[in-house]
Specification:
With 130 residues, the chain is mainly β. 4% of the residues lie in helices and 47% in strands. The protein is built from 1 helix and 11 strands; from the N terminus they run E-E-E-E-E-E-E-E-E-H-E-E. Strands 2, 4, 5, 6, 9, 10 and 11 form a 7-stranded mixed beta sheet that branches. Strands 1-3-8-7 form a 4-stranded antiparallel beta sheet, with no helix packed on it. The model has no long low-confidence stretch (mean pLDDT 96).
């Protein structure tokens, strides 16, 4: 049974940092792309960041570029999201997800679309106070 479990969320003041982690189990995800999405109250879920299977490329939503960094450890089947200089508008439930890319190249547009992902975690709450 495939499972994705996020951790690391919490309450932080504006300007602070958090590091989210996502542990995948049930099979190897070493050939898959992995992404982070978020959903704020009353809003649709949106793309945040993604990383290719071999970490050769990373993609970010414009609003988080320069503040967030996505990374992965294929040996541990984990993906992380380092979030710095957090803003109140970053408040949301953050989800990790996997995209079956089979080690093939895909564009940033592919990674930014929810339909590209097949497994999702349950989410972790991030709250940034002003």
């Amino acid at each position: 049974q495939v499972q994705l479990v996020e951790s690391g969320g919490g309450l932080v003041q504006a300007g602070g940092s958090l590091r989210l982690s996502c542990a995948a189990s049930g099979r190897s995800f070493s050939m898959d792309g992995m992404g982070w999405f978020r959903q704020a109250p009353g809003k649709e879920r949106e793309f945040v960041a993604a990383i290719t299977w071999n970490s050769s490329s990373a993609y970010y939503q414009d609003s988080v570029k320069g503040r967030f960094t996505v990374s992965r450890d294929n040996a541990k089947n984990t993906v992380s999201l380092q979030m710095n200089s957090l803003k109140p508008e970053d408040t949301a439930v953050y989800y990790c997800a996997t995209a079956r890319t089979w080690g093939a190249f895909h564009s940033g547009t592919f990674y930014s679309q929810e339909r590209s992902y097949d497994y999702w975690g349950q989410g972790t709450q991030v709250t940034v106070s002003s």
